[in-house]
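Project outcomes to date are best conveyed with an example. Our students and postdoctoral researchers have been running inverse folding experiments weekly, and each run begins with a structure described purely in tokens. The record below, which covers 106 residues, was selected by the lab manager from last quarter's runs and is presented without edits.
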């Protein structure tokens, strides 16, 4: 089973068990980026994760936004890059840019 199917399978299980869930998806990359477009991270309301959008360097910030999306139902478009002050704070120093779309499931 591919990574994306693993993520969606687990997200479906969480959702079916009544948990709040969000999915983060890499929608744009430029230069050196840790994961390709289409990479996904599923997060449940307790902070459990499946998949990856960065191999770790921005995962914490994405999980924080996913939890906020679960709470308020609003999608988010996150930008991380070497010129972005926040990117250095969360550790994206690979020289590229990544855009991640985060949305609540259901």
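After processing, the design step wrote out the following sequence:
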């Amino acid at each position: 089973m591919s990574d994306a199917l693993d993520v969606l399978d687990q997200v479906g299980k969480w959702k079916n068990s009544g948990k709040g869930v969000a999915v983060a998806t890499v929608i744009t990359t430029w230069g050196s980026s840790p994961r390709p477009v289409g990479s996904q991270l599923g997060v449940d309301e307790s902070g459990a994760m499946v998949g990856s959008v960065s191999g770790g360097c921005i995962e914490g910030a994405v999980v924080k936004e996913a939890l906020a999306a679960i709470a308020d139902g609003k999608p988010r478009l996150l930008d991380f890059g070497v010129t972005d002050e926040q990117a250095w704070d969360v550790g994206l120093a690979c020289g590229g840019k990544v855009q991640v779309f985060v949305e609540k499931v259901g």
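The radius of gyration is 13 Å. The chain has one domain: 3-104. The training component of this project remains on track.
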